[in-house]
Amino acid sequence: MDAVLDNYEMIGIAFATTILLFVFAGIGSLLLGGLLVTLRVGPVAVMRRTAATYVILVRNTPLLLILLFFSIAGPKIGINFQFVDIVISTGWGDIRMTNAFAGAVVGLTLYTASFVCEALRSGVNAVPLGQAEAARAIGLPFGGVMSNVVLPQAIRAALPPLASTMIALLKNTTVAISVLVLEAAYALKQLLDDNPGDRWWLLAAFAGIFVVLVEVVSFFSNRLERRWRIAR
Amino acid sequence: MSQSVLFDAPGPRTIRRHRVYTVLTLAAIAGAAAFAVYKLAEADQFAAEKWEVFTTPDYIEFILVDGLLETLKMAAGGIAGALVLGLVLGIGKLSDHRIVRVPCWAVVELFRAIPVLILMIFFFSVYGIYHGDTGSFWCVVWALSLYNGAVLAEVFRAGMLAVPTGQAEAAYAVGMRKSQVVSIVLLPQAVKIMIPAIISQFVVTLKDTSLGYAIAAPGLTAVARPIYLEFQNHVPVYIVIAAIYIAVNLILTAIAMFLQKRFVGEKKVLEVSMVGQADQTTV
Fold it and tell me: Between chain A's N and C termini, which has fewer beta carbons within 10 Å?
């Protein structure tokens, strides 16, 4: 128990880093995933195939391999994030967002975007055919069909799979331990090495915080789902 | 194609515009590829000695035996444990007794919410450190069993609920007990529906074995390190390793799709509820 209470500052900083990873990669992957799904369902065959290939390749690669690529192989060919060096000082310690952090955000974004794309695509497929047909019948072009009729309904239908994807992203941020980002898993490993006697308390604390974070994400998704629900 | 409902058959002007888009996309892809090739060539990553290692029998054996085989062993161990655990928890969640149902539901929700890596690190500190080479191997297998067991519990539950209700009703009508209904009538039919979902979960497990890297477990991701340390071929080695993962996963996905078509039909994909959705329907 002492190991948890004595190190609350370190644990707090670690989870702040985890949440920052989640927020940045979440926003990035929603944007990139939105772009991918537009290409994926659009009328231009080459764009469709490009997006599909991206999704297939990235989905079948382990996330860790992508992160390691940016951390180990990337710098050898001039891909690095040395220009990122932000330190947020708080009362509990510094939150360091350095090149390792930026690399992890980019890796998580690229990986999660492929799942966001698939979630949104399942939403597009869930919109009744008549909706798109009616939109075309009144003369809307592809852009209008998508932005005014299909996407607003698709996002509602895609909300549950999107929420699952975001929860997976939250849990996947722990993978950044292998590229030396000081996030939750990293803190757990250090604390376990230093306080082997308190390991069950440490597990309970870290697992508990993750359960709470997951429940928060799923709570907001349920709220959104209820608010956006439309009577059919 | 289902997408074609989103747009009309293109007219002459649209066809011209699409042609422009096509050319632009191709140019962007070609540009990105050329840039990547330029960067690789600049860093001398195309030199024959950096790729030669992947045609050397000793190293092919090293990658396949110490890498791929270990990865497959961990994934198989993980999914085997997950099947047992998932079956127990899945049936437990469908129990008529609160005292069985609620703990099973809690265990499933807990292990679906904890990141696998946290479990691996914990097992490593309890067991792995003290058991040398095989220690981290088993930590990976146990962590994957627990996490995927919780996921498969949902698959089993959803699979059994997907069996038409008439089947269970008919079985009760001929006087079967609940245990008989589940084991003789529901499970055999549910397995058919669940096989594709189980194989998809195997793909997830296979990708997750790479997380063992953080606790020095063997596997495909781990074999990259000795190779790039020896040959300084950081980029080629990750390209090759990623290609192996992708190939294995695509084969597994193809098998899953074949079985899906064979057993279930293309339309009906098993829907599994997400974490945090308390859903306690019983048979």
Answer: C
